[in-house]
């Protein structure tokens, strides 16, 4: 068949040539691994160096030090609808970002390692030396000064995990600095792991499931290290204690995010609406909770259901629309969350977050890989609802279960892609319209996407040729 002439084409659709549409992200056609390489570059925009310096918009004349990872380049004066300044360095966010830099395969200088990681270590040590009142201080200015904020015992643990992973990519002086930071972190953690801490979302203080999980991973990684980092006395006892303490969070239906100090097992320290909380999934992605733990899977099922299921009071309308598109769902932090970057005008019901969605997708991918490796499906009464959500309603071949899990993860990442602003990732999406909102270009959003894609591919995401770009 020959193509119609231009005149016939215009007669068939007289207004077609006049139609104008904004370009839309091709979310079903985008290859996720290829896109992740672009996301890496987007993330690296928020990591400073001696040649890439940013100025504090709230304090002109204050400049970033190399290795600073800013949470986001977003502050009230240039972000309509946001009254929070994110141009600071959070220890936890910086370490999560560093984990992705470590896996990116950035170019190294012979004998002196990867400069971006050397800078990260130097900045981490500057912040640790300036931390007031304790090494668990969570937030710092872009030049490494302690900012009035909370103490969060998850930060030193994740930072230690990142430094151990980075060690072989560091130059000699950065290795020495990393060992010093690790030693100081461990001294702090060994005195703090049984104590309350401000939680992951910086809203409550208590015995945090997330903090305990990343502390357990930290102590295990230190014990297993082969790079010469000394294992302090007390680490083995801390591992045993944390393994038992994490089980106290199980209430028979799901893992609770926070417990009241001194209370018995399963006694929540926060309102019931704070659970199920996505930080339980984060505790598996960044901490020590195995992806095959059926209590974790039971919690994950309840998390997904509260934002996806018809009839749920917390269902996001955008998830209904996305279901028809074959993508989603998008997930938030916890039921009743009303933070959207503007604390003066809270939105009841909240909005989904990119990092929360990516973290659950990563759980799907990790579990798929584990099932393929072991040829065992952790299906029991607790995990049945979890597998039913991805279409597995009874005994099935491990390969089929793994495929279903990967398809579910893909659907969630493609929802993130669909609702991104031309692949830029903010902190949140509007729960009704799907458009991005809250702070722009959240570093953790990119890191979570990269981490999920790595888990999907079971191989590091190769960096583009960056020798001339960094």
What's the arrangement of secondary structure elements?
Elements: H1 6-12, H2 32-44, E1 89-90, H3 91-103, H4 115-130, E2 139-140, H5 154-166, H6 172-192, E3 197-198, E4 205-208, H7 209-224, H8 235-247, E5 258-259, H9 279-285, H10 294-308, H11 317-325, H12 354-374, H13 384-388, H14 398-419, E6 428-429, E7 436-437, H15 443-457
Antiparallel strand pairs: 1-2, 3-4, 4-5, 6-7
Helix pairs in contact: 2-15, 3-4, 3-5, 3-15, 4-6, 5-6, 5-7, 7-8, 7-9, 9-12, 12-14, 12-15
Tertiary shape: globular
Class derived from helix and strand content = mainly alpha
Question: Spans with pLDDT under 50 lasting ≥5 residues?
Answer: 1-18, 463-470
CATH-defined fold name: Glycosyltransferase
How would you describe the overall organization of this protein?
The chain is mostly helical. It has one domain: Glycosyltransferase (Alpha/alpha barrel). It is 44% helix and 3% strand. The chain has 15 helices and seven strands. The strands form three sheets. It has a three-stranded antiparallel β-sheet with strand order 3-4-5. Strand 3 (197-198) and strand 4 form a beta hairpin. It is globular. Mean pLDDT is 91; it is low at 1-18 and 463-470.
Please sum up the structure shown.
The protein has helices spanning 6-12, 32-44, 91-103, 115-130, 154-166, 172-192, 209-224, 235-247, 279-285, 294-308, 317-325, 354-374, 384-388, 398-419, 443-457, and strands at 89-90, 139-140, 197-198, 205-208, 258-259, 428-429, 436-437. With 470 residues, the protein is mostly helical.
């Amino acid at each position: 068949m020959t193509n119609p002439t231009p005149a016939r084409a215009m007669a068939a659709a007289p207004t077609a040539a006049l139609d104008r549409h904004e370009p839309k992200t091709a979310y079903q056609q985008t290859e996720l691994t290829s896109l992740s390489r672009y996301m890496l570059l987007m993330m690296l925009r928020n990591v400073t160096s001696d040649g890439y310096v940013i100025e504090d918009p709230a304090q002109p004349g204050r400049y970033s030090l190399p290795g600073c990872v800013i949470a986001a380049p977003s502050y009230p004066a240039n972000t309509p609808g946001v009254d929070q300044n994110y141009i600071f360095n959070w220890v936890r966010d910086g370490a999560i970002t560093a984990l992705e830099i470590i896996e990116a395969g950035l170019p190294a200088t012979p004998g002196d390692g990867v400069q971006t990681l050397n800078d990260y270590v130097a900045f981490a040590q500057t912040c640790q030396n300036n931390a007031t009142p304790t090494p668990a201080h969570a937030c710092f200015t872009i030049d490494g000064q302690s900012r009035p904020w909370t103490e969060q015992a998850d930060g030193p643990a994740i930072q230690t995990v990142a430094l151990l992973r980075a060690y072989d990519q560091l130059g000699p002086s950065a290795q020495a600095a990393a060992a010093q930071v690790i030693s100081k972190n461990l001294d702090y953690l060994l005195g703090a792991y049984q104590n309350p801490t401000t939680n992951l979302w910086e809203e409550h203080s208590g015995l945090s499931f997330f903090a305990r999980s990343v502390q357990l991973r930290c102590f295990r990684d230190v014990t297993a290290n082969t790079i010469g980092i000394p294992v302090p006395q007390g680490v083995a006892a801390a591992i045993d204690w944390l393994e038992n303490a994490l089980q106290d969070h199980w209430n028979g239906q799901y893992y609770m995010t926070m417990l009241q100090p001194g209370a018995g097992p399963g006694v929540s320290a926060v309102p019931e609406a704070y659970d199920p909380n996505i930080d339980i999934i984060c505790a598996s992605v960044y901490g020590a909770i195995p992806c095959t733990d059926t209590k974790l899977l039971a919690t994950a099922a309840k998390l997904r259901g509260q934002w996806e299921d018809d009839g749920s009071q917390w269902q996001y309308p955008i998830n209904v629309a996305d279901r028809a598109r074959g993508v989603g769902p998008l997930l938030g932090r916890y039921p009743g969350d009303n933070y959207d970057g503007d604390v003066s005008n809270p939105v009841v019901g909240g909005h989904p977050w990119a990092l929360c969605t990516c973290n659950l997708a990563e759980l799907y991918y990790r579990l798929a890989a584990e099932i393929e490796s072991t040829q065992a499906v952790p299906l029991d009464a607790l995990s049945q609802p979890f597998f039913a959500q991805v279409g597995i309603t009874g005994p099935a071949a491990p390969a089929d279960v793994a495929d279903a899990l990967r398809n579910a993860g893909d659907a969630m990442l493609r929802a993130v892609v669909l609702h991104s602003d031309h692949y830029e990732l903010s902190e949140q999406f509007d729960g009704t319209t799907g458009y991005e909102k809250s702070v722009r270009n959240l570093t953790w959003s990119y890191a979570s996407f990269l981490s999920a894609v790595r888990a999907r591919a079971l191989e590091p995401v190769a960096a583009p040729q960056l020798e001339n770009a960094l």
